[in-house]
Design a protein that fits this description.
Elements: E1 2-6, H1 13-25, E2 29-34, E3 49-52, H2 56-60, H3 62-65, H4 69-85, H5 89-92, E4 96-99, H6 105-115, E5 120-124, H7 142-146, E6 151-154, H8 157-165, E7 173-175, H9 188-193, E8 201-205, H10 214-226, E9 232-237, H11 244-252, E10 259-263, H12 268-277, E11 280-283, H13 292-297, E12 303-307, E13 321-323, H14 328-340, H15 342-357, H16 362-378
Parallel strand pairs: 1-2, 1-4, 2-3, 4-5, 5-6, 6-7, 8-9, 8-11, 9-10, 11-12, 12-13
Protein name: Glycosyltransferase
Pfam family, one: Glyco_trans_1_4
GO molecular function, one term: glycosyltransferase activity
Length: 379
Amino acid sequence: MKIAMLDPSLFTGRYDDGLCAGLAQAGADVTLLGRPMRATDAIVPQGYSYAPRFFRHSEALRDRLGEGRAFRLAKAAEYGLTCALGNLDAMTGADVTHVQWLPLAPADRLMLDRLKCRTALVHTVHNADAYHADSGLQGRGYRALLDRFDALIVHGDTTRAALVGQGVDPARIHVTPHPPMQLAPATPADLAAIPAPAAPRILFFGTIRPYKGVDLLVEACLSLWRAGHPFELVLAGKPFMDVAPILDPVHAAGFGDHLIPDFGFLTEPRLDAHMAKADLMVFPYRHIDSSGAFLSALHHGKAMVTSDAGMFGTLPDGVTTRVAAGNAVALAQALLPLIESAAIRQAAGARARAFGDIMGNWKDMALATIDIYRQVLRA
């Protein structure tokens, strides 16, 4: 079976890599089609091929243009032309084209219309609200694209129910749980570059966007600092929003030395180093379906605090400390015992690690995905 796997912007490279390697191990001929890799990417294809099919020209201009409006416009223009007029042989020559992300819905519609009836079309819906209501043009028309696919894959019943509520035929929706992931491990140099904690350290990592609730986390931490509780907060990742209004109150209150920002597109080993140095990790998302960041952190065995949104609300009791989404006061109350007690943190981390050990693996995910492909091809 020949599979073309699409993630044009490489939004979930670690997920793509795990699935493609699992599919290849199960006997499929897999090519992952994305953009040219950057220094921050850590994909090393095992058994499958990687083709930088998208954004080749705009990525070549990235260093010169920066990542502002000009770069985004160049990417959008190039992607639109690729979808409308580009060579689709890599997809039309495959039995199945499996799309992980649709980065620009108006352009994606053109590509999907060209592919229809020339290859089976499968899409993984990582989030029922694709870009969490902060996408603008990027996600406009995303829902209509779902009707162009022969099958949709989701990671849990929360997403399935959301799609059914949007009018998607339940017969086209398949649930395959998201396995845990591991980032490329930190090198000794990465570990040395992250200072050792001077007090219990809280870590938030990943892209920083409004729906992820970083403002709620900072508000909760500020209240605890004002109450005299010593700890550190690390924010590690690329902001896709203005973070100054969130961080300025921390500095104005005199707690800037408790805050450790590490902003930018960070390499996987650097993120892994942050996880290794942290005492607990927080995922205060306002809404989410599944969280790759959470699933990539479980093996570290650190205490986890999450909201009750999406997949977090379905976790067994004790895996994380859960609080109501959007509630900074409840978040502060949940953090306090973990800040104060190393024993409580250690016990919570052990539960998180044990849960990760029983969550399944990429082999199971690949076999379930191949079964979905076969159902589509038979139909």
